[in-house]
Amino acid sequence: MAPSSADPSSAPGAEPAPLDAAAALREIQRVSRRARASLWREVLQWLWAAAFIPSFLLVLHLHPEYSMGMVIAAIVMCVPLGILNSRTGAFSRGAARRDKVIGWIWILLLCGALAALDQVPQGLSPWVVIIAIVPGLPPLLAAAWVFRR
Q: What is the mean pLDDT of residues 92-121?
């Protein structure tokens, strides 16, 4: 299309045509549905992490002979999920700050749990369950934080 035959409303510096009320309402509802779906996806991801980490730690402690294979499987599962999650689009500074705080707390608790599990005798005991559950608490906190929004 030649520049002279371009629509004047799409010319550089021209303001977009105003939407009528019905079109504006449809656009608001579309964006609202998309934002809610994104929030639910984030809540489900945090809940999955809150369930997966304690389960992973319990199995890792109860079956140490499979530890290297389980760590490799966890990395193979988590790296693509992390890349996919990082490409989901724009997010607020508050969400980035929350994820950073939760992430650091999570890493510290996970390292502490791994060190503590080395000190606990093999087998299932209440201490093993408690130690395994503690690193699952930050993702639960994050899920509640996102759900509250």
A: 85
